[in-house]
């Protein structure tokens, strides 16, 4: 009986720790610039280039090449919501080229939010309205 109590107490603590950790992770994926940069390198750089200049190794045979994410003139004409939607649903669903694939099945919402912030850092710009 005593052992059983101890067991459940330990389980309870473990579950509490696990949920605190999960919430912590959800925050960091959208807030932590290193996670966003790693995701950009991992999921986006093959086309967009590691620095976001649109010079990834896959673009040579693409009919529509990605814009330069460091170009403040272009990127300030896109709202954060539009960037989120393009990353999530892909280009074709948002009036852009289908060469931009959807990422909603491979990235969490928080990770996509992190990527929008990363792009804002690359262009050093905000939505101009
Ligand atoms: C297979 C190649 C490919 C991959 C991988 C890819 N993209 Fe793209 N992306 C494109 C192309 C091509 C376009 C240009 C579409 C257009 O201009 O019509 C584009 C356009 C975009 C745009 C719109 C830019 C603008 O001009 O407003 C955003 C934002 C974007 N991509 C973000 C990302 C992010 C973030 C990732 C990684 C999660 C990613 N892309 C992965 C090919 C890719």
- The total count of strands amounts to 0
How many domains, as an integer?
A: 1
CATH superfamily label: Cytochrome c-like domain
Secondary-structure element series: HHHHH
Biggest beta sheet attributes: none
**What structural class do helix, strand and pairing data support?**
mainly alpha
Q: What is the count of helical runs?
A: 5
User: What's the pLDDT, averaged over the residues?
Assistant: 89
Helix content: 55-70%
Second rung of CATH, namely the architecture? Orthogonal Bundle
Query: Per CATH, what is the topology?
Result: Cytochrome Bc1 Complex, Chain D, domain 2
Q: Which spans have pLDDT < 50 for at least 5 consecutive residues? A: none
The radius of gyration is: 20 Å
Whole-Å distance between the termini?
66 Å
Which ligands accompany this protein? heme C
Fraction in beta strands: under 5%
What is the molecular shape? elongated
CATH domain class: Mainly Alpha
């Amino acid at each position: 009986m005593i052992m059983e109590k101890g067991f459940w107490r330990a389980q309870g603590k473990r579950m509490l720790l696990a949920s605190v950790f999960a919430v912590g992770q959800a925050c960091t994926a959208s807030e932590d610039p290193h996670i966003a940069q790693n995701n950009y390198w991992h999921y986006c750089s093959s086309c967009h280039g590691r620095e976001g200049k649109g010079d990834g190794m896959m673009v040579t045979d693409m009919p529509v090449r990605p814009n330069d994410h460091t170009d403040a003139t272009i990127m300030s004409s896109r709202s954060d919501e539009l960037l989120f939607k393009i990353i999530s649903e892909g280009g074709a669903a948002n009036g852009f080229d289908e060469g931009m694939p959807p990422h909603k099945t491979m990235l969490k919402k928080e990770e996509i939010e992190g990527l929008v912030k990363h792009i804002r850092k690359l262009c050093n710009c905000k939505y101009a309205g």
